[in-house]
Design a protein that fits this description.
The protein contains eleven helices and 23 strands. α5 (226-241) crosses α7 and α9 packs across α11. Helices cover 30% and strands 27% of the residues. The longest helix has 18 residues, at 272-289. Strands 9, 11, 12, 13, 14, 16, 17, 18 and 19 form a nine-stranded antiparallel beta sheet that branches. The chain has a six-stranded mixed beta sheet with strand order 1-2-6-3-7-21. A four-stranded antiparallel beta sheet has the order 4-5-23-22. The two termini are 37 Å apart. It is an alpha+beta fold and 482 residues long.
Length: 482
């Protein structure tokens, strides 16, 4: 069964069409063109700013001309992650979708329902001639996933609405009214290397099969970080078996918990058997340590030809101790909202950038601005002690909750009347673009809701079919009542 035959069909048809358009972050040219052509084809007023954001405008339905304008906001880019064994070109191939046990997934890649299903709902409303609503603006932003570039650079005069509904949430039955701010911290190590020594056996260590996930939503779930695991074993191998490291690679995206990593290194031949025995013990220990959260963890050690060069001892020491010492995971839980992560950090990626540089990318989040800045400084200090050069992204602000919002009241009442139960009103540790919109339009009232997604930012990403209908019904009813 094709997903475009699911109900509500108008939404699923739009989502199916979106999955056919490649849209990696920072490479949104094809989806921008698609959106512009969509507007032209259907006679919809649209505007595109210099950064690539697109807004479409639909007049009020008959009898609703006196209503305030509502902005429906989603982002057009998607996280591009795949299983190591899957051959897939995110820049040119359509996502291959499938239906499994009530969920829509992709075949070995991220699905892009984050935030493709939000885009689909907005486009469906542009086409729905029976929907009852005041004026609507559908805003589609670029590059949300790797820097919120579109929201940062939103053009003047793009928005006129009083209310904004962000369509980038992942838990049906929950309405979000606040989010964390964030900043990236990057460390640059100058590579010093030397010819690989004789009298060593060389190995490749692979870590794979980890859950990964969203570095905001999933950071408190106790999942393993492949870069941290890799650094642990390599530092022990260095201290006990005089290991020399030639190469490391782990993780890809700043906002994803890394699932895979590998390293090429050597140990003295005289200690090789002891090292392999210790590795087998270490693998058992780590699998037991993460036995509940990482049931598919795989640790593999294979022989490797002698590489040409390895890191010099001091360079290797600095790198490994920094990776082992750097904070990762939850730093502080919220004292104001039970169960909410307040502050966290993610060791996102380790990349050998050619022969002369190693780049380590981390990401800090917090719903408290001072705590975000402290977490940034804490990570920076560790890297500086290891001799790295440190740079920070511009960062983005959090979205402070407004529990007295008129839009929130309408949304809660709609949900209660439609489904006979009260929704949960929450803040989220993930970053949303709402804080940036508030900086430009300080009088906006905002809420965020969506259908249920799981495994976001990983190849396990899936969208629960039954919740899409509830999401669509709620959205249409809210627009009718506002």
């Amino acid at each position: 069964m094709s997903i475009k035959n699911l109900e509500p069909r108008l939404v699923w048809e739009q989502f199916d069409a979106i999955t056919q358009v490649p849209r990696p972050s920072k490479k949104e040219e094809k989806i921008i063109e698609y959106l512009v052509n969509f507007a032209i084809t259907h006679g919809i007023e649209y505007q595109k700013d210099s950064i690539g954001n697109v807004v479409m405008r639909k007049p009020a339905a008959a009898g609703y001309q006196d209503r305030p304008c509502v902005i429906l906001q989603s982002h057009m880019d998607m996280v591009c992650e795949k299983l190591p064994e899957v051959d897939f070109d995110f820049e040119n191939e359509p996502i291959r979708t499938k239906i499994t046990d009530g969920w829509v997934m992709a075949e070995g890649t991220t699905l892009g329902a984050d935030c493709g299903i939000g885009m689909a709902a907005a486009l469906a409303l542009m086409l729905d001639s029976e929907a009852e609503h005041g004026p609507i603006e559908a805003l589609f932003t670029v590059d949300e996933e790797t820097g919120l570039t579109g929201a940062f650079n939103l053009g003047e005069g793009m928005l006129n609405g009083k209310y904004l509904v962000n369509l980038d949430s992942e838990d049906e039955g929950e309405i979000f009214i606040g989010c964390a701010g964030g900043v990236d911290t990057l460390a640059y190590f100058n590579v010093e290397n030397e010819p690989s020594p004789e009298g060593y056996d060389y190995y490749r260590l692979n870590i794979s099969g980890l859950m990964g996930g969203h570095s905001g939503d999933d950071i408190n779930k106790g999942r393993a970080n492949s870069n941290k695991l890799m650094a642990r074993i390599l530092l022990e191998a260095q201290e006990d078996y005089k290991a020399c490291v030639s190469y490391m690679d782990g993780g890809n995206l700043r906002n994803a918990i890394p699932r895979d990593a590998y390293a090429i290194f050597g140990v003295e031949q005289a200690s090789s058997d002891k090292f392999k025995q210790r590795f087998a013990e270490w693998a058992k220990e780590v699998k037991a340590e993460f036995g509940i959260t990482e049931p598919q963890m795989q640790l593999e050690l294979t022989s490797e030809p002698k590489p040409e060069r390895v890191l010099k001892a001091e360079c290797q020491q600095n790198l490994l101790q920094a990776l082992v010492g750097i904070a990762n995971g939850v730093i502080e839980m919220s004292k104001a909202v039970e169960g909410l992560v307040e502050t966290s950090t993610n060791l996102a990626s380790v990349k050998f950038n050619g022969a002369n540089q190693i780049v380590v990318t981390t990401s800090q989040r917090s719903s408290v601005e001072s705590a975000k800045l402290y977490a940034k400084k804490m990570v920076e200090s560790t890297f500086l002690l290891a001799g790295a050069e440190v740079k920070h992204s511009d960062g983005y602000p959090g979205w402070a909750p407004n529990p007295n919002s008129e839009l929130l009241r309408h949304t809660v009442e709609c949900y209660q009347d439609l489904f006979g139960t009260e929704p949960k009103v929450k803040a989220v540790h993930a970053g949303l673009e709402c804080g940036l919109f508030l900086e430009k339009y300080p009088d906006l009232e905002m809420v965020s809701f969506g259908p249920t997604l799981r495994g976001v930012h990983s190849p396990e990403e899936r969208l629960e079919i039954a919740t899409v209908d509830k999401f669509w019904i709620l959205l249409k009813e809210l627009l009718k009542r506002v």
